[in-house]
Amino acid sequence: MTRDRPYASRCLHLCRYPCTVGRIAIAAAMQEELGALLAAMPDEQPVVLAGRQFWLGHLDGHDVVAVLSRIGKVAAAMTATLLVHEFGAERAIFTGTAGGLCPAARVGDVVVASALLQHDMDASPLFPRHEVPLYGTDRFHADETLSAALADAARAMFADADAGTDDADLALDAAQLRAFGIATPRVHAGLVVSGDRFVASAGEAAALRQRLPDALAVEMEGAALAQICHDLGVPFAVVRTISDRADDSAHVDFSRFVASIASRYSVGVVRRFLRGGPASPPSGRPRGGSGFGGS
C-alpha cells in the first residue's frame, strides 16, 4: 500500500546521499545472498550507518542501494527506515529464505508475498490476535505490480534452467538442485508470516497452519519491512526461497542451502527483474518517471 506516496519523493531530496529518481533498495537477510548481488555491481561503494554497510551503486543499469538487514523484525524495521530516510529508496525488495508451511510450498520453490502478517503479534484482549494495534488490520499488502514482476522473473529463471538457455552469470547449478532433491520448482504467491522465532519443530509449524491456514511460508523479517513501507508510502515486495519445511529438520544443511541455492535464486530473480524494467539515468540526471509502478 502507498497511502502517502509524496513522502517518498520528499525523502529523495532530504536524504544524505545523492541519487537519481527511482532508487531501488535491495535487502537480504543472509550475507551469502547479499554477497552474490554485490559481486554483480560494478561500482558499489560502502556507507556505514547504524552498524550496517549500505552499498550504493548500479545493478543492470539501475541506481540501487543494497544492505544486509540482519535477522529479526526490529533489525528489518530499522533497515527499512534508513533505506528510505537516509538513502532515498523509492521502492524496496526483500530477498531471503523461508520455511514452507502449506504442503504445496516445497524446498526449492519461490514464494512472492501478496501480504505479510506478524504471527507473534498478540495484543488481545484489547485487539484481535495478530492485529497490529491502531492499524485496524493484521496484514500489510505488498505492491501488486512489483510483486507480479518478481514472480514473472522467478518463473523465467526456472524456465531458462529447464531449457538450458540461462546466461552464465544467472545460471542455476543443476547438480546442486539435484543434491537438495529440487526437480520441478514452482512460484507461489500469497500470505507470508513473520515472527521473532526460527520455527523449527513440527509442532510449531502445525500450530501456525491451524491458526493461519492461508499462510504459505514463515520467516523473521518481511512483515516488519511491510509495516514500515506502508507507513512511509514506499512500494515493496518480498520474495523468498523455501529452504525447509519449518519442522525438526529445518536446521539441517541450512547454511549449504543458502550458499548454493538461495544465493543463486536471489541473483537470478532480482537481476531478471531489473533487466525487465527501465534503467536509471546517469548519476546527476534525475528522471521524472517512477519506474516500477506503485499504486
Give me some keywords for this one.
295 residues; alpha/beta; Rossmann fold; five-stranded mixed barrel; 10 strands; disordered C terminus
Task: Provide structural commentary.
The protein is an alpha/beta fold and 295 residues long. It has a single domain (5-275), classed as Nucleoside phosphorylase domain (Rossmann fold), CATH 3.40.50. The protein has 8 helices and 10 strands. The protein has helices spanning 5-14, 31-38, 73-85, 144-163, 174-179, 202-211, 222-232, 254-275; strands at 24-28, 45-49, 52-59, 62-68, 91-100, 110-118, 139-141, 187-194, 215-219, 236-244. The chain has a 5-stranded mixed barrel with strand order 5-9-8-6-10, surrounded by 4 helices. A hairpin with a 2-residue loop joins strand 2 (45-49) and strand 3 (52-59). Helix 2 runs parallel beside helix 8. The radius of gyration is 18 Å and the shape is globular.
In short:
This protein has helices spanning 5-14, 31-38, 73-85, 144-163, 174-179, 202-211, 222-232, 254-275, and strands at 24-28, 45-49, 52-59, 62-68, 91-100, 110-118, 139-141, 187-194, 215-219, 236-244. It is an alpha/beta fold and 295 residues long.
CATH topology: Rossmann fold
Low-confidence stretches: 1-8, 281-295
Shape, please? globular
In percent terms, what proportion of residues is strand?
15-25%
Which helices and strands, and how do they pair?
Elements: H1 5-14, E1 24-28, H2 31-38, E2 45-49, E3 52-59, E4 62-68, H3 73-85, E5 91-100, E6 110-118, E7 139-141, H4 144-163, H5 174-179, E8 187-194, H6 202-211, E9 215-219, H7 222-232, E10 236-244, H8 254-275
Parallel strand pairs: 1-4, 1-5, 5-10, 6-8, 8-9
Antiparallel strand pairs: 2-3, 3-4, 5-9, 6-7, 6-10
